[in-house]
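Aim 2, interim progress: modelling of the magnesium ion-bound target.
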Amino acid sequence: MILQIEYLTKQYSHKDGLINAIDDINLIINRGDFVIITGPSGSGKSTLLLALFGLIKPTSGQIIFNNERIDNASDNIKAKIRKKHTGFIMQNFALIPYLTTVQNVMIPLSLQGVNKTEQFNRASEVLEFVGLKHRITHLPRELSIGEQQRVAIARALVHNPSVILADEPTGNLDPALSLEILDFLRKINREKGITVIMVTHSPTASSEYGNLKVHLKDGKLVENKELISVHP
Ligand SMILES: Nc1ncnc2c1ncn2[C@@H]1O[C@H](COP(=O)(O)OP(=O)(O)O)[C@@H](O)[C@H]1O
Ligand SMILES: [Mg+2]
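Predicted structure of the complex, ligand included:
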């Protein structure tokens, strides 16, 4: 087990009243799982993903990561855990526009204090893995959308995280590119044994990918289907 969530609830207070963005969620994720989180817009998917790694503080409940309770840890400790163990892929890629491909990918290593030469070498290696070795000095705007998303994947991978969190990573992509990115995530999951937790709207993704499917509705977990484990 890599991640356990117990009775997790997040309420937002809004001028119109309290919103239960996620409501009493229990979930166990094992190392090497490929988790697919689906649900209608506003059902709490992003909130769950952000809460999992301490980017928002849950109102109640517990999050246990690697046998350690992290929901009540200090911001400093949570940031350390995130930097070391997690990679994020967002729908809008969140690449830094004035940094080149390789510089964008070096960021997580720079945050860990790795020296510049090693940052460059490791970033180049991961860019080769995602098939972008020939684009390392391009700026994000000089890349196609699919290439930009692969840079985001490389950046999420470069520090060998144990978990990759992806919030609708194919949301902006056409069907062919979406499949390419999903296949990439599967490759990372299978070849590197990295746990992938992905929020998606894509019907293909939710039917063809992943061994644990979680469906949210109004902040509640309404379906939790365990399929054959890829990593028993
Ligand atoms: N910062 C916030 N303040 C108030 N309400 C929020 C905030 N963030 C999200 N919500 C509300 O919480 C619910 C869940 O949001 P979200 O997790 O973003 O849903 P999803 O990712 O499934 O579309 C929605 O009703 C949304 O409007
Ligand atoms: Mg969302």
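The pocket of magnesium ion (ligand 2) is lined by residues 45-46 (CB under 6 Å). The longest strand covers residues 17-29.
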